[in-house]
Amino acid sequence: MKFPSMFRSRAAIVAAGALVVGLAASGGGAVAASLVTSHDIKDHTIRSVDIADGAADHRVIRDGSVRSSDLAHGLSARLARTKQVTRLGGKFTATNATVSMTPDGVAFGPYADGGTAGGSVKFTGLNGMKLSDVKNLVYYMRYTASNDSGGVGVPYLRVFLNHDANDAIFSPNTQSPDPDVAEGPFHEWVATSGSWRYDDDSGNHPDESFKQLVTDHGNETISGIFISTGFSNGQNLSSLLRWMQVNGVTYNFGG
Fold first, then answer.
1. Are residues 70 and 96 in the same domain?
2. What's the CA gap between 89 and 15, in Å, rounded?
3. Which structural domain range is residue 47 located in?
4. Which among 228, 93, 223, 206 has a CA at the least distance from the CA of 156?
5. Whether pTM exceeds 0.70
6. In the listed set 80, 102, 126, which residue is the last one of a domain according to the structure?
7. How confident is the model over 154-202, as pLDDT tens digits?
């Protein structure tokens, strides 16, 4: 049998093969009689590039039949480093009622006056560890306002230290040479590759590299990591947090 060009991955061919088997067994019925299970898949053969969107769905793969041993080592490890967060609680909490979980992610606002109002998501998964233990911090967000906030309304990230007595802040609008702060589109901000300030939320002093920050304050103890919108600038300011990555673990928010 020659498959058309749409079947470019092994997963799609497996799905099509299972469907053909089912049709043959049922005399042309619409539902496959034989489903692909773990026994039909050679261990470690399924890779991320093999699975196209919608190529393998519940009609051809029996629920719960694909095991971790069926996945290539890289894909299995990648899935283990991805967590789905469907509610705020536990490691992730909201600082006030203006921050809430939605099917699309964590929503902040809207704040009629983004200069005087705002909210945060607090992550406590690294509490008690040292600032030097932070190897990777990334967050993926968008924000909007009914006016041009000049980039000051952009969501920012802070690491609180020493029982909240001090904090280090990553502000996208102070990154050099080209701040990535356009209102509307989603942005992937890699905080640990950017510049920071210590005990200087208002931005009165120059930024320094994350490496220098750790050199100066690496032994200080983490008491919370916050992603915030507001208390900055912008009219009818709002934002949406889709995912956050901490030391290689990606937390996806929403449904």
1. no
2. 38
3. 10-80
4. 228
5. yes
6. 80
7. 999 999 999 999 999 999 999 999 899 999 999 999 999 999 999 999 9
210 and 93 part of one domain: yes
- The answer to whether the CB of 198 falls within 8 A of the CB of 138 is no
Note the residue count of the chain: 255
What's the pLDDT tens digit per position in 41-90? 777 676 666 666 555 555 556 656 666 556 565 555 556 689 999 999 99
Q: Mean pLDDT throughout 88-115?
A: 98
The amino acid occupying position 151 is G
- pLDDT tens figures, 7-27: 344 444 444 444 444 444 444
The Cα 18–Cα 50 span in angstroms is 16
Domain count for the chain:
2
Q: Does residue 193 sit within a domain?
A: yes
Give the DSSP H/E element, type plus range, for residue 100.
strand 99-102
d(CA 94, CA 122): 6
According to DSSP, residue 29 is labeled -
Helices (H), 7-160: 10-26, 73-80
Q: Is residue 120 located within the same domain as residue 215?
A: yes
Say if CB 195 and CB 210 are below 8 A apart. yes
Does residue 238 sit in the same domain as residue 115? yes
